[in-house]
Amino acid sequence: MRAGRRTLLLWAALLSSTLLASAARAQGPPVAACQPTPTPVVVKPDANAAATNDAGGIRVFLYDAEKKPLARKRFYLLRRSAFSAGLDWASMPKRADFLQGASPQLREWLARHDCDSLYCPEFEAEFPEAVKTVPEFKRAYDDGLRKYRSEKLALKWLTVNFPLKNVRTEYYKRKKAWLDRAEQQAGAVVSFMTDDKGRAIFTGFQRGDYYISNLFPFDEGGPVWDCKVMTLPPNPRQLWAVSYVLSNSRQ
User: Fold this and answer.
1) Model pLDDT for residues 94-135, shown as the tens digit of each residue
2) Rounded distance between C-alpha atoms, residue 130 and residue 158, angstroms
3) Which residues pair with 238 in a beta bridge?
4) Cis peptide before 233, with omega less than 30 degrees from 0?
5) What letter would DSSP give residue 118?
6) Contact, 242 vs 60, CB < 8 A?
7) For residue 64, what is the DSSP state?
């Protein structure tokens, strides 16, 4: 009788922890606060804006919590807030889910790069060293040597012979599919990459409220930003400049 009661209590505890974990994930990633500059500044008339009173532009500078430019980061200009668009946060893929069976060396090697698949150009220069230090790359290289009897071809086709198929492209495919759905739901106007100063410029779009968001955390477990922006009166054809400090996350 006591054994049966202990079993029931154990199952109840497991069920409770599972439900709590599912609920936490369904709530979505942490939300980061956006701190704009107090007053946007007029930069110059925008000669490329459409000839309508409603066309305008805005130049944004995006900084992290340490006031460093968020350089070369992907953001989206949205019609709706990412957190009120009904996005399915629970289905957002996690990189760790696609690293089943990966060695510690491979996990460390991938963590040093902001890339979603093995086919990124910046990886190729590191393949000769990775063959020496990462077991999965060594296996792929040895497999290539047996197949092609050429060191050059073994390196060239390293990703093709890579033993963990999920690591190659599966995370990239799942992430892209999730982002495609999220963009549609949130009414994405455009996606953009900041320059080396954390800057981006938008022109020729209708005056009104917009949101800037990364939609997908830059790092595993990281925050999603949801910054409200707008084209501004009195002269909507002018380009306005505003800075946002994307501060530490808050739940």
Assistant:
1) 988 999 899 999 999 988 877 889 988 888 889 999 999 999
2) 10
3) 45
4) no
5) T
6) yes
7) -
Q: pLDDT digits over 59-79, tens only?
A: 888 888 888 898 999 999 999
H or E segment and range at residue 153: helix 151-156
Instruction: Give domain status of residue 193, yes or no.
Output: yes
User: Parallel, antiparallel, or unpaired: how do β-strands 41-45 and 238-250 relate?
Assistant: antiparallel
Neighbours of 152 (CB within 10 A): 9
Q: For residue 95, what are its two tokens?
A: 């990189």
Provide the domain limits for residue 246. Answer: 29-85+187-251
Provide the CATH number for the domain around residue 228.
2.60.40.10
Q: What single letter denotes the amino acid at residue 2?
A: R
Tokens of 200: 């981006």
Report yes or no on 215 lying in a domain.
yes
How many distinct structural domains can be found in the chain? 2
At 234, list the tokens.
């009195």
Alpha-carbon dihedral of residues 199, 202, 208, 212, nearest 10 degrees? -40
pTM of the model: 0.76
Token pair of 37 as six digits:
């500059």
Q: Is residue 109 in some structural domain? A: yes
The pair of three-digit structure tokens given for residue 73, joined into one six-digit string: 């980061």
Checking DSSP bridges between strand 31-36 and strand 199-206, what pairing results, if any? unpaired
State the DSSP string of 108-126.
HHHHTS--SSTT-HHHHTT
Triad 175, 69, 184: Cα angle to 5°? 30
